[in-house]
Design brief:
The protein has 6 helices and 3 strands. With 160 residues, it is mostly helical. Among the domains are: 55 residues, Aspartate Aminotransferase, domain 1 (Alpha-Beta Complex), CATH 3.90.1150.10; 53 residues, no CATH class. The chain has a 3-stranded antiparallel β-sheet with strand order 1-2-3, with no helix packed on it. It is extended and about 60 Å long. It starts with a helix and ends in a 32-residue tail after the last helix. Bound molecules: pyridoxal-5'-phosphate.
Length: 160
């Protein structure tokens, strides 16, 4: 497959110098085990497990098959006042392997969403305790906690 500046135009990539990338793209076309292969055929070690998202390696057949079977059985349920059996099973497993004080599990889709949720939860907690004025968060300068509104130092406009 050929990748030209034109064919790459419509995907606006996050945290990427888009113009430079599209001039000289590096597209990962395959992931197997510890390795990626780019569109030039170069084999690359994925030393960060795709930013910690694939710690068991790429292209694992048993993971692909589990996802395939789940999609056939029940692909999605809107989570408002509704749930699937697997979510309770997983929450129970996570609660069992984490320290005793961690026993309520809230699922999200990304690190960014988890940080946003944590910020909202602590604000709701203080509000429920009659301390709604407690909205100050402490973070390191140039800290990175995702592409949410509060987890990225330079994008936070609330009180610090
Ligand atoms: C400490 C920390 N928080 C949050 C995030 C954001 O996670 P995600 O890319 O899944 O939104 C990252 C991602 O690298 C991270 O390292």
């Amino acid at each position: 497959m050929q990748f030209t500046s034109n064919s790459l135009e419509h995907h606006w990539m996050p945290f990427t110098a888009n113009k430079a990338f599209k001039k000289e793209p590096r597209i990962i076309v395959e992931g197997q085990g510890l390795y990626f292969t780019d569109h030039h055929g170069n084999k690359i070690i994925d030393g960060s497990s795709a930013l910690f998202c694939c710690p068991l390696g790429h292209g694992r057949r048993e993971i692909a098959e589990a996802v395939y079977h789940q999609l056939l059985e029940n692909d999605y349920v809107a989570p408002f006042g509704c749930a699937t059996p697997g979510t309770f099973e997983l929450a129970e497993k996570v609660a069992r392997i984490t320290p005793d004080s961690i026993n309520h599990i809230f699922f999200v889709n990304s690190g960014s969403e988890s940080i946003d949720t944590a910020l909202k939860m602590v604000m709701a907690y203080h509000r429920a305790n009659g301390e709604a004025q407690r909205t100050r968060f402490v973070s390191r300068e140039r800290a990175y906690h995702g592409v949410n509104i509060g987890g990225h130092e330079s994008e936070w406009h609330g009180e610090k």
